[in-house]
Amino acid sequence: MKDMNPVVRLAIDDSSIMADLHAASFTSGEAWASSAFADLLKLPTTYARGMMDQAELLSFAVVQFVADEAEILTLATAPSARQQGFARAILQSIEHELAPKGLEKWLLEVAADNAGALQFYRQLGFKIDGERRNYYKRLEGAYVNAILMSKPAGRQAPA
Ligand SMILES: CC(C)(COP(=O)(O)OP(=O)(O)OC[C@H]1O[C@@H](n2cnc3c(N)ncnc32)[C@H](O)[C@@H]1OP(=O)(O)O)[C@@H](O)C(=O)NCCC(=O)NCCS
Description:
The chain contains four helices and seven strands, in the order βααβββαβαββ. The protein is an alpha+beta fold. A seven-stranded mixed β-sheet has the order 1-2-3-4-5-7-6, with helices on both faces. The longest helix is centred in the middle third of the chain and has 13 residues, at 86-98. Coenzyme A is lined by residues 25-26, 59, 75-77, 82-88, 108, 110, 114, 116-117, 119-120, 123.
């Protein structure tokens, strides 16, 4: 694997670049405003980590860590930087950071029609726990189920 840029901590000042990459990654009405990122980053339980190429944000994850569970609130890689291992490297880095704080389990919700993300999470060892019906509403008005996934911390690949 080629050398990667380091995973860096993202702060409130980075809210607008996170919102820009989010908008480029979620084009069916799920994009979050910059203020949503800023509000999350005020919480001590929020971990936002990313990978930059100079001033450009290539990939980032926002995770909420409460008790022993880390929930992936959102995750995105720039379209031109996908499938180069950036998102996996960021989640691995967060796992490394949270392990000494007692991380036991990863959780997330993903839209049932997001085949690429579902495949990404399967590659990382996540399993499906259940479904929330009609959880997401698309721009054109259609409803999409949410798939609930989890994996024990420390597992990087399917069992
Ligand atoms: C899902 C997403 C974050 C993955 O980011 P990424 O940086 O491209 O992922 P990685 O390169 O780290 O991929 C890790 C593994 O997942 C696989 N993978 C990633 N995207 C995939 C896709 N679209 N289809 C199939 N496999 C995929 C990779 O091939 C790699 O597999 P490997 O272990 O065999 O090498 C990115 O596609 C994205 O931003 N999508 C739009 C936003 C989104 O859906 N976010 C998640 C919603 S919760």
